[in-house]
Amino acid sequence: MHRAAFVLAAFLSLAASLAPAQSLSPPPAQSKDGEKPKDKAMETYLSGVTQRGRALYAYDQAAWRGTDAFFALNPDTKGLSRYVARKTAAGWVVSFGKWNDTHDHFLVAYEATQVGATAKYEAKKLDPPVEAKDEVTDMERALELATSNFQGQKRPYNTAILPAPGGNLYVYIYPGQVKEGIWPIGGDTRFTISADGKKILEKHAMHNTIQDMEYKAENTPVAGVHSHIMTNVPEDTDVLYVLTRRPSIPEYIAVGTDKGFVVSRDGKIEAVTPCEGDASGLPCNLTQGAPTKDEQKPQH
């Protein structure tokens, strides 16, 4: 969704108290002896992508509502650099702050807190600002490192932080929505960063170009389609895209002439076989007639 919060350095950082995510290495397309990987290995991998994609969506929702509550205070945003969100036992807390003069501690100036299990958030000013916990400071440092090593377009970007194996951090940078009803996908990167936020361990470009897609309900679209040219498996942000987009429809991902995937409306991913001789990337049961303009297949 479109958020006015982009005036704060255009970046959203989200951190949650989740169990560390599993390894992201996808199953190989083919084993050394020429056999395809076992279905169970791919199923496990796809389940992990779904889990992280759903987590990204939860963060986005928390950030949207938390920033709305923050701006309702008519806050003084001068000097505020980044903001982080975390899920506590009592619900989500979105913190807005800045670094201290020596740049070794993050100071929280405002907080927006989820009210119970509802979609309501209440914001307050902390005067004087309160020093954040070491965990939040490390996440903020990781966010700063990732954004300084990311080259994007001149448009708003969101960010999110997830726990990674070994106590490390995943930092995601992906395009933000700039217009209601237009849903961006692509041009995103996932960084793996050390637990202290000081070292990049891996930089993984998930998609190449950004596609701003519009799906009008009156056209009764049945699915969206795009193809991957950088990887041969779905990415975490593919799930985020499906869960965020309206109307809620599945997304088919073509990764070759004989292989593809579908992300269901709930984020679950399954392998599909594209219809032979059809260039849309859709399975045969969805190619019985001319595709609508919403069934285009951008490549990234």
Describe the structure using short key phrases.
single chain, 14 strands, 300 residues, four-stranded antiparallel sheet, 19% helix, alpha+beta, globular
Q: SSE layout and pairings?
A:
Elements: H1 39-71, E1 82-88, E2 91-99, E3 106-114, E4 121-131, H2 134-148, E5 157-163, E6 169-175, E7 182-186, E8 189-193, E9 200-205, E10 210-214, E11 224-227, H3 236-244, E12 251-256, E13 259-263, E14 269-272
Parallel strand pairs: 11-12
Antiparallel strand pairs: 1-2, 2-3, 3-4, 5-6, 6-8, 7-10, 8-9, 12-13, 13-14
Helix pairs in contact: 1-3
Please give a structural write-up:
This protein has about 300 residues and is α+β, with helices and mostly antiparallel strands. The chain has helices at about 40-70, 135-150, 235-245, and strands spanning about 80-90, 90-100, 105-115, 120-130, 155-165, 170-175, 180-185, 190-195, 200-205, 210-215, 225, 250-255, 260-265, 270. The protein has a domain at about 5-70 and about 135-215. Helices cover about 20% and strands about 30% of the residues. The strands form 4 sheets. A 4-stranded antiparallel sheet has the order 1-2-3-4. The chain has a 4-stranded antiparallel sheet with strand order 5-6-8-9, sandwiched between helices. A hairpin with a 5-residue loop joins strand 13 and strand 14. Helix 1 crosses helix 3 (about 235-245). It is globular and about 65 Å long. The model is unreliable at about 1-25, about 30-35 and about 290-295 (pLDDT under 50).
